[in-house]
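Reproducibility note. Readers wishing to regenerate the assembly model reported in the main text can use the exact inputs given here. Chain order matters: entities are listed in the order in which they were concatenated for prediction.
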Amino acid sequence: MRQSIAIVGALAIVIGSLCGQAAAKDAATAEFDKFREVMEDSNPAELFEAKGEDLWQAKRGPKQVALAESCDLGLGIGVVKGAYVQMPRYFADAGKVMDAERRIVWCMVEKQGFSAEELFRTPFANENFTPEPTSLVTYVAGASRNMKIAVPISEPHVQDTYQLGREVFSFRAGPYDFACATCHGEDGKRIRMQQLPNLAKKDEAIRAYQGWPGYRMTGGFMLTQQWRMNDCFRQQRFPEPRYLSDTVTSLLTYLTANANGNVYKGPGIKR
Amino acid sequence: MNIVRRNLLRSAGAGGALAAMLAAGILKPTAVLAAEWNKNAFEAKDTAGAVKALGASSAAENKDLSMTAPEIAENGAVVPIEVISKLPGTTSISILVDKNPFPLSASFDFAEGGIPEVAVRLKLSQTSLVKAVAKTADGKFYTVQKEVKVTVGGCGG
Amino acid sequence: MADPMKIRAQMKGDICDIKILMSHPMETGQRKDSDGKVVPAHFIQSLSVDLNGKTVISGQTGTSISRNPVFGFKVKGAKAGDKVTVNWLDNKGDKRTDEATVG
Amino acid sequence: MPNRFVFLLAALLVIAGVARADDYRLRALRMIQNDFQAKGQAGLDRLETDSLQHVCNKYSDKPPAPLLRLVEADQLATVKYPADGRLMGDWREGEKIAQSGRGFTWTDKPGLPVGGNCYNCHEISPRELSFGTLGPSLRNFGRNRGNTPEMRQYVFSKIFNAKSFNACSAMPRFGYIGALNEEQIRHLVALLLDPESPVNQ
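Running the prediction on these inputs yields the following structure tokens for the assembly.
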């Protein structure tokens, strides 16, 4: 009995991948791809880049200091161009490996004197509200457009964080037994109509990486990589990862370093 | 002169004076914009009503009026639509979403220099016909339409 | 006050390609917020594109235009260095004017 | 002699490598325990792995064959069949359950009914174009496999506890975890096997 089921099962998989799927999938996917370029050509994310640039330049916070004159994103104080594609990286002043959003918030708290508690309370955008770090990340990301991703993976702290990220990626738990890898560990899969890049592979990880920060068509607001990780864990039926936590940074280190060598084309526009 | 503006002048009942004010820059452009919105057409609840309010009685299909629209939209909240009119003397292009609560989505008027080719992004509440209506200088109307399917998204369903 | 628009005006041959991004909620008046209350309609109703101070395209819009609207227009008779001005006005009387130089 | 030396060195390296991987795994687990917070119905207890999850995590979803058979038998034993023996419900209801992806996230309201999530991963009815491809296509499932009592029992068991047939399958254990009740699973069996279901048209 068991054996015959297995044989029939295998047969069904073969039949499925030969006919049913192929036709329907490809028509829809091809249609999406055709309009992707149109969407990317005029991406409302640019509106948030402009907002972020203003925030970066302005003297703000209790200390009335501009990030442009105080924040080091890894390439020297105030240097924005090219910084995004070289993060996450290790920051000796914080003693941590940090992704872009984590670093920006660190600068806002340490250099400008903003309240961490406040920034952590509403970290993600909604229809009525865009957090300042979101606009700042979008600006910083946009300043690395068309540059090669180069996470300094041979740096020991970054390497260590990468290895931890790989473990987080494949950790199965929760009521549905899901890991990140359950949906993002194979090539060419979809959930409903959404492509699921295989985050372990260079050419697929880049697709996930440059999607975020991204302008989300649903709702029409800007969301960051930190949000993407948070919402993946929600759909994974996990409890909530803390904003800017080591776990999220490790995952971002894993998937970004996996995309090393590709040219960054974001910020993105997403369904 | 721009047709919408001409209507405005007529309805204002003092065309000459208003035109003079406009020319003198006394009325800011946004004040003119405010007077232009065609409430009847935009608040019509069906396509037929909206088209009528635009002044179009019958509209013929013509190969010189074309529309680019996705057959299946990735997201109904943002559907890219492009309408191109090669009809000589095109003065306006209107775009309607048949199944939306208020079908009329946008209406553009072209003055000298404006090419009748527009790209917009629309919300579609469900799978629907998207329709464009173009008007030419001789008062004739033309139309083109395409169906856009709206799909369910991933995960949450 | 509303956030600035992003306007790109680029000559392609003898045609000027204009792309406009606007920052606007474009509320339909049908959406409910997380508390179940209807969010009042708030949308751009009119816009105009001027080339060197002369209106070349004017538009009226309804609630079907997507949030943070994107428009693409084409204009002839322009050249590099010309000024493109875009105005919009919404149903609450908010408005915005921004300029770009044709490149 | 040199051969033995190389062999020894290689063995040591392998052990060191394994030890390091285990070390990262343990540290990652500790980091996760530290970095999550309960939200809505998603409590921290969800980070504790049960025996099945533990095995799949430990062996990266490829447990050795004897263990695999043991785990699968263990999972199959959790399947509770309807007392009245009825395994077929209404495919129309099944289609609705298959469409819904709701349930168990921290934004979902706790309790039943939750959705089957089926279209997230499977092609099912030809009328629904928006389907995922993580799982195999189920188009013509009943037509290809036959609407036999054995097949009904297999489909019921598979939906109740997918791990009964493939220990580290990506598919959740819908019945076992209480996401879908007996009645809902019956409707899904009908969606796949009923000759009237669009799946088989």
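We highlight two features of this model. The interface with chain A takes residues 3-4, 6, 8, 19, 21, 23, 25-26, 31, 33, 39, 66-68, 70, 72 of chain C (CB under 8 Å). Strands of chain C lie at 6-12, 15-21, 44-51, 54-61, 70-76, 83-90, 95-101.
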